[in-house]
Amino acid sequence: MDSVNYKVEIPVIEGNPSLGGLDELISRPTITKPDRKYYIALSISLSMLSLGVIGVALTFFYGIGMWGNNIPVAWAFDITNFVFWVGIGHAGTLISAILFLLRQKWRTGISRFAEGMTIFAVMTAGIFPIIHLGRPWLAGYLFPYPNQHSLWVNFTSPLIWDVFAVSTYFTVSLIFWYVGLIPDLAVLRERTVNKIKKIIYSIFSLGWRFSNRHWQHYDMVYLILAGFATPLVLSVHTIVSFDFAVSILPGWHSTIFPPYFVAGAVFSGFAMVQNILILIRKIFNYEHIITLNTLEKMNKVILLTGSMVGYSYLMEMFIAWYSGIQPERFVFINRALGPYAVEFWIMVSCNVIFPQLFWFKKIRRSIIIMFAIGIFVNVGMWMERFVIVVTSLSRDFLPSSWHHFTPTWVDFSILIGSFGFFFTWLLLFTKALPVVSMAEVKAVLKGSQPTHGDH
Amino acid sequence: MSISTGYHKKELPPKIKTLGLALLITGLIIVILGYMTDTTRSLYNNIIGFTFLVSIGVGSLFFVGLEYIVGAVWSTPFRRVSEFLSSLIIILPLFVLPLLLNVNIIFGWTHPADTMMQAKVPYLNINFFVIRVVVFWLLWVGFYFFIIKNSVRQDKTKEPSLTKTNIKLSAVFMPVFAITISLAAIDWLMSLAPKWFSTIFGVYYFSGTVLAALAAATIFIVMLNERGYLIAGLKSDHYYSLGALLFAFINFWAYISFSQFLLIWYGNLPEETVWFLARWHGNWKIFSIGLLVIHFVIPYFGLLSQPSKMNPKTLLIMALWILFGHYIDLYWLVMPNFYKEGIIFGWIELGFPILITGLIILVFFYRARKINLVAVGDPKLQRGIDFRL
Amino acid sequence: MSNKILYSYTGIFDTPDQIIQAAEMAVKEGFTKYDVNTPYPLHGMDSAMKLPPSKLGYIALIFGLSAALATALVIGWMSAIDYPLVVGGKPLFSFPAYVPVMFEVTVLTASIATVVAMLFFFFKLPNIGHPLHGTGYMKTVSSDKYGISIQVNDPKLILPDGSFNESFILKFLESVGSKEIAPVYWDEEEINHQNKILDPKFMVFLFVVAIITSAVTYFSLNILMNITPFNWMAEQQKLSVQQTSSVFKNHSGMLVPVPGTVARNSMPYQFSGQPDSAGKSLINPIPVSIESLKKGEIKFDVYCSPCHGFNGDGAGRLNGQFPNPPTLHSDKVRKWTDARIFAVITEGQNVMPSYASQLTVDERWTVINYIRALQRALNAMESDLK
Fold it and tell me: Span B344-358, mean pLDDT?
């Protein structure tokens, strides 16, 4: 459709389904038995997960020497994967919280799923700080509790800030997700005939009875949580960026890292969410709930955040030159032409060039192309973290300290395993809970709100 | 509800013009006297004034463009206010001319003394500097001209295709804006300390710019709407959205500001800390803390609650305060480079603020004479008026 | 089922506009003990029911600000007072570095506090039983219709004789257009349920949780950490001191050096028992300098002065308790070479023990330089006075 009618609001949900019909459609996957495709998908993700478990077990038993890390490249895949997965999580909170604050109704069809993805992504991310410790069973030392050594943690270290940030992010996201689930769990409670499920839903729906006196407080809490989750999500990836930026390593010590990392996180997160939603809407027949318009809007966000990432690349390169400091200038020459040039150019083309195709409406509305671009973006963003971490470490001030990094098969198995971990949780989620928020979607249907409800 | 009968074009009262003229002339006299008595100090104030106008002018154009590309409806009824403010772009050359004639006095990089400075010469040389100013201004004026022309024309013709064109123009403008505003900040503010650098500096200036443009627009919107000059039907929901945006960008400014500070503080590299140390020396220390309080703490609590965002009085006061805060921010960026011992304040410093206030009022007055204060032809207008949270 | 007690009357509506109107009519009528149930929140319902705004925002604010302050103080105490550590040359109380943690703890505390307040205070968790649960009304109202429920003990419905005005409520519900008007009864358990905070079941639950937590903590910290592989760093395979060894004949982990072992940076003393040969062969390698003399003075004062006195004249602190040590200013000693004195210090003579373990080779030579200075001081020549 070429001429857009600006006078009329584009409906969020197409086809004008009935309220009861929506309940039926969205709760159906939680009632029906999984089909063969589900089992195939689950077995794939479980095999990936098993590979990761082997890798982690070997790492625990033999130590970090199983990885390719060396001096000076003391951080490699571990931190790259950590930052990557935390970034994936940010899209979920952005969709839930930030789009809520911006009153964007198109978020309703996707917020539940996106929030779930956030939680699983943060869980996946949380694996890495633990396994990269020399003695992972002492991970409790990261928390400031009174102990017989009379020691406290080093609060000035960004690694401790990470501990607080990621645990807070996980907890608040979980609370936010759960609060959103309460009305839907109550719907399931009312619909189910299975005795055990009824008990479970009754417990977890906390007796919700759709009373407007409760909705009033519920709405306020939702707004407050959204209001907190927004700066929280910005702060988490900011703190992750501080892991690098507080150092004095060229290529790491750059004041633009906080907003640059946040934009990059949203960028990769949206690409991942979008791709999975494309699969979900097809599998569950939610095409009129997760509409093409929604996907197009997500592409615009990808375009925006991708441009921010591109801006950051340009600004970093320019200021590195402007500074006149030779090691700073060398960082970017090394990235483009040095031993990791391939990774660098993959990163630039995937992050800067391909997403710019989203300027064109035809591309924004083509499922296949947007799916491909989504994959490119995720590859590119993983490469970006890799390039930042490894190139700056492998070649810093003193050429005699330079050393190349090569990943081992254990590194790769853990990376694959992390995807397996994430997708397994996601698959289980689609069967256990409604992936679309019934209450929120109903509230934005045409005719669902009173007409003369002026304040 | 017919759109054309909802808006009645009222002339702004002539006392506005008188006020604007009075402020303009007073300010101009102070500025001229300032130039005659202490040229260098006036030049520094000129930079502050110039970057302040860029913030409001180009920032307002950014807002207009932003509304077009995200398809927002709540701001449509008062987009024209930002359009008027963006016409300040046209008079920017008047403010930049004294600076260009005196580059040698203002900018240390015009005399590159050592190898470090000479390494920057390909970018920091007078010729390229001037070319950049001219090119940026031409780009800004170009986009201003076409976007605003389409918007104004739509008042008469009501063609939806003009909206589509403006969306396309705005889409192209966004990356142009990002690059030009960043480089302008680097050229005019960061290079005052040519050995210092910060990759986030462009974003920092951008955050202040957004606040200034938003605050200036809010001031006019609230004052005009309360006196019935805009269109009937604009209620607390619209004020809330403006207040929420102001609140959000206050936090964004604080976030960018703190990030820049924390990273430089933590790394403790002398070539970077020197900039902040200059702002901690003598009574600049009090000013820096004051900036944090003025620009963040007070507006944060002032705009935190829901009622405060919806109330036109508090919104107006906070918008005025935030605009004042932006001027303070620019002062903090410029002056410590030159006056190392402490805050410098006298009658000279009042010249440009008074002049600029008068100028903005006058520009607004004259634009409002010829053009509608509301974009009556915009197809989204009715949805904008009907907007409810 | 015979003694069912009535709780409320409910009515169902089809459209949002109808239920808003019904709520407004209920308020106008003066009902206070009523509620509206909708599958999702309706815009304008709060003002239709004239509900006061929710106070949860204040809870968020108070808890948030307190958490921020508390965090700053606690971190400050931990880092600057309890176990002060200088990190990166920064001051002990480094406020900028605390901001990230302060922010996170603030958000965490405020979020949890707000949700907990909503659940426990406003929703009255854990007392969530309610007569509306399990009714057909609840089923409809959770899915696609809107409902109103008016309690029978609303003051507007109490008649003078204490019973409730059934016809009035039925008439009202019909007048606002509700369908499916139905009564709702209390569950027997609910009506007799006393909501106590010190409910015995809850106390038992807390007790069990405490036991389990303590047990898990004890197990993980005291037992688990001492078994393989968690004890790998504490129990290492290398031989530590005071451990028995299965390798060495005397089963001791601590061994003396093999005979003939020479300490690093030292040569074995070749003139054992032959002080005169030593005196002829060795040469003082330490040049005389202020530094050497100063060092020698310190060592002499420590090791030699107790017997030989500070001036080397034999008037030491041991005078009278020990056979008198000889003066170092005798002709004999003055004629000895530096190396002959070295031999005496190294091996001792008569009652004087060996000082080889208290003074390194170089230190002995510096002491000798100092002795020479003392000797010269007591036998100065006129030329020295210049």
Answer: 94
Chain B positions in Cβ-Cβ contact with residue A5 (cut-off 8 Å): 160, 379
Question: What is the SS3 assignment for B148?
Answer: helix
User: What DSSP element (H or E) covers C36?
Assistant: strand C34-37
Q: Rounded CA gap, C81 and C73, in Å?
A: 11
Q: Which among B221, B218, B239 is positioned nearest to B229, based on CA atoms?
A: B221
* CA A226 to each of CA A93, A120, A173, C130: distance values in angstroms, whole numbers, following the listed order: 9, 19, 10, 29
For residue B305, the chain C residues in CB contact (below 8 A) are: 57
Q: Which of B175, B203, B380 sits opposite A259 (nearest CB)?
A: B203
Domain of residue C228 covers: 199-258
- The Cα–Cα gap between A429 and A422 comes to 11
ipTM over 0.85: yes
Asked whether residue B22 is domain-assigned, the answer is: no
Asked if A77 contacts A441 with a C-beta cutoff of 8 angstroms, the reply is no
Query: Which stretches does DSSP call E strand in chain B?
Result: none
Give A309-338 pLDDT, tens digit per residue.
Answer: 999 999 999 999 999 999 999 999 999 999
At A413, list the tokens. 């198995």
Enumerate neighbours of A (3 or more CB pairs within 8 A): B, C
Q: Of C210, C230, C258, which marks where a domain is finished?
A: C258
Q: Structurally, how many domains does chain B consist of? A: 1
The CATH number linked to A212 is 1.20.1630.10
Instruction: Please tell me if residue C97 touches chain A, with a CB cutoff of 8 Å.
Output: yes
CATH number of the domain that C300 lies in? 1.10.760.10
Q: A308 in a domain, yes or no? A: yes
Q: Which residues of B53-62 are buried (b: 16+ CB within 10 A; e: fewer)?
A: bbbbbbbbbb
Residues in chain B within 8 Å Cβ distance of C90:
268
Cα distance between residue B46 and residue B238, in whole Å: 35
pLDDT tens readout for residues B304-329 = 988 999 999 999 999 999 999 999 99
Contacts of B377 (CB under 8 A, 6+ apart): B153, B154, B155, B156, B157, B158, B159, B162
- pTM higher than the cut 0.90: no
Indicate whether A13 belongs to any domain.
no
Is C95 exposed, middle or buried, given 0-12, 13-18 or 19+ CB atoms closer than 10 A? exposed
The domain tally of chain C equals: 3
Residue in this structure with the two tokens 């600057």, named with its chain if needed: C80
Residues of C in contact with A210 (CB under 8 A): 37-39, 138, 141-142
Q: Give the count of domains, chain A.
A: 1
Helix, strand and coil percent figures for chain C, each rounded to 5 = 50, 10, 45
The token duo for A397 is 């001030």
Residue B317 lies in a domain: yes
**Model confidence band, residue C196 (pLDDT cutoffs 50, 70, 90):** low
Best of B67, B199, B246 to disrupt the A interface by mutation (most A CBs within 10 Å)?
B199
More confidently predicted of C309 and A77: A77
Q: Which two tokens stand for residue B202?
A: 């462009």
C47 and C162 in a common domain = yes
Contacts of B among chains (3+ CB pairs under 8 A): A, C
Other C-beta atoms closer than 10 Å to the C-beta of B38 total 14
Please check whether residue C96 touches B, CB under 8 A: yes
C240 plus C288 within the same structural domain: no
Tell me the chain A residues in contact with residue B175 when contact means C-beta distances shorter than 8 Å. 307, 311
Q: Is residue C385 in some structural domain?
A: no
Q: Report the SS3 class of residue C148.
A: strand
**Rg of chain A taking only CA atoms, in angstroms:** 23
Per-residue tokens: A139 = 């991970």
Who's near A24: CB < 8 A, 6+ residues apart? none
Backbone angles phi, psi at C8, to 5 degrees: -160, 170
CB A386 within 8 A of CB A415: no
Q: What's the token pair of residue C318?
A: 């041991």
